[in-house]
Amino acid sequence: MNKINHSEINRSEFLRLTSLGTAAAFLPTSWATASLQQQNNARPDIDYRFEGTPKGLRPYLQSPRPNSMWVSWWSDSDEKTIVEFGESKDKLDNRVEGRVDKAAKNYHYHFVQLTGLQPKTWYYYRAKTENMTSEVFRFRTPEKLGSASGKYRVVVIGDNQVIDPKQRRYERLVERAKKKVEDLYRVPIEEAIDLVVMVGDQVDVGTLEHYRHLHFKYCGWISPSVPIMTSIGNHETYKDAGLANYKRFFFYDKLSCAGVKSPHPEIYNAYQLANIAFVHTSSEHGNDRQTQWVKKLSEAVQKDKTIDWMISICHRPYQAEQYIGDISTWLRNTAMEILSQTEKHVLNIGGHHHLYARGQTRDWPVYHIISGGSSWDQAWGMSREQDYDDVQKTISNWAWQLVEFDLDERTMDVRCFAEANPKFDNKRKWSYNSRQIDQFHRKRGLSKPKRPKLKNKASETVSLPYRLRSTPFETTTQEKLSSTQFQLSADKEFKKVVFDKIINAENIYGDTGTPDYVPKNINSKVDLLEFEIPKDSLPNKAFFARVRHRDTNVLWSEWSDIFSFQVSGSTNTGITSVRLKKDSFTVGEDIEVIFENAPSNPQDWIGIYRDGNTPGKQSSQSWKYVDQRNGTVTLDKNLPAGHYFVCLFANNGYSELTKRIRFKVVKKK
User: Fold this and answer.
1) Class for domain 466-566, per CATH?
2) Cα–Cα distance measured from residue 605 to residue 425, given in angstroms and rounded to the nearest whole number
3) Which CATH number fits the domain 67-141, given the four candidates 3.30.360.10, 3.40.30.10, 2.60.40.380, 2.30.42.10?
4) Nearest CA to 436 among 185, 184, 223, 150?
5) Residue 12: its pLDDT value, please?
6) Which residue blocks in 315-379 are alpha helix, DSSP H?
7) Is it true that domain 577-666 has CATH number 1.10.150.530?
8) Helix or strand or coil: residue 279?
9) Predicted TM-score of the model (pTM)
10) Across the strands, what pairs with 195?
11) What CATH class is the domain 11-39+58-66+152-443?
């Protein structure tokens, strides 16, 4: 393997190393209602000058439980592991000796679990070896499981990766997050924040150097006082395919949630804090065993009366508008559907892309975000890009998130703070100063919006273009209109949908370019209550339409009554389509594809791709030419188990003539 200069690696090199590249108490009460400008300018006294992590022994807290806490730290060669602690700073009368992992020369990892602690109690402590003693720090143990009062707050920070001592990107991000939190609440961070969640790629390569001198060192701003929980990313597996180092430094093997323990808790796990379930999945291990664990866990969480909320974490995201296709298809096609069978699942957090993005799943009341940290540069124009209707914002900033649960009011509020822009020069790069770039919420127990209607007058025939019009948004809550979905079908049952259009009030996609790179809302002048059917886009026949509204609490209304109409005067001779008789096949079974109204060019072709792959960039799994308008083709029956899509392509190229039809192949029982 070629030696990589990690101070010079760019996003192209980063992609080459990924599978995509190789595969071709107490927030101010006004915060929820203040304007973004007011919030951004509310605390002008923050000192944003970079100081760097304080010197000395900086312990690392992890795996918090109501009655225990793990404490760890590094030394070059010391042999002893001692923690002295108590409920008073001046009376550290408890002494516990732990162990040391002599990982290598100059890499001694010290660790000890403090047990027999009381819930919701402050403990003061210091860590010691024979040659080093830390200052006295403090932490608070979590409340009893099932506690449903007060506030619970989480800081989310994504990819660490860059170890370059000159840039120290991740260290800057952690330092700024700490300063902003302490300025918002006017208390030390351990009084404001209960947990820090990191979503993978804590290292660039899984070596001792990167764990000690990147993740553990740069987390030193917050790790002695607030526990940190991590997920596995693809970079943890580089130079450590078996994750030996990850498993030795993080103590997750005893974790469980709702009575369910992971078969591989050091790789993927779940745990409960207060009345919130945190589910850390692995996008690098999306196998059947993990799927079965997710299913069992989701069912148990739904039944558990001590859990009201569930957050899932998966390094590769649910969807991405840059470097399209570089997502977790296991999360998107399998895990998310399972997790979202319980209404307690409200948020999925991903990373991998070094930016911030926020979306809403098309059908479930679940948000998904990308918390990409401050790793290798990623910006508009560097990759293949696509605007997706299940992503409302993609902003190429280095940012972090603050999640607050009001357990009494059953609300979740999320804010995102940007610190830097990779397109700025070094003097200007870190000039955002915790600028708030997003805020969204989820409130349990609210009513969904009222059912809308289509305002179009009954008509025997219409000519195209033709505009569908919805009645205004109505609700019994304080929520606003977030999205409108129009569907058009060739049948009353909506099994042959020809248009499926979601229009979002916010659609931040791209930016203004030099010099300020301001994010653009490309839907700022779009009418959410109208959808125009383009000229000649449908043949002369009967069609059926319906509409529904989604509010800012991510709840959909019921579909409207169906409106029918007859198209006349169109030059379109028919809807080009492909379909399957079912959406699930077993390994070895024939895959019959029915096509209709094809152009009948000699080199039009039907191909099957793995879901998430990009035609033209990755190879098809199976394909055949079709030179007639209607018919059936049988494609390769030897597809391995997995998720796929089939599509009709034009004239030996990659222009897609039909919508993608997704299906899965499963192993024989």
Assistant:
1) mainly beta
2) 48
3) 2.60.40.380
4) 184
5) 36
6) 329-330, 336-339
7) no
8) strand
9) 0.84
10) 154
11) alpha beta
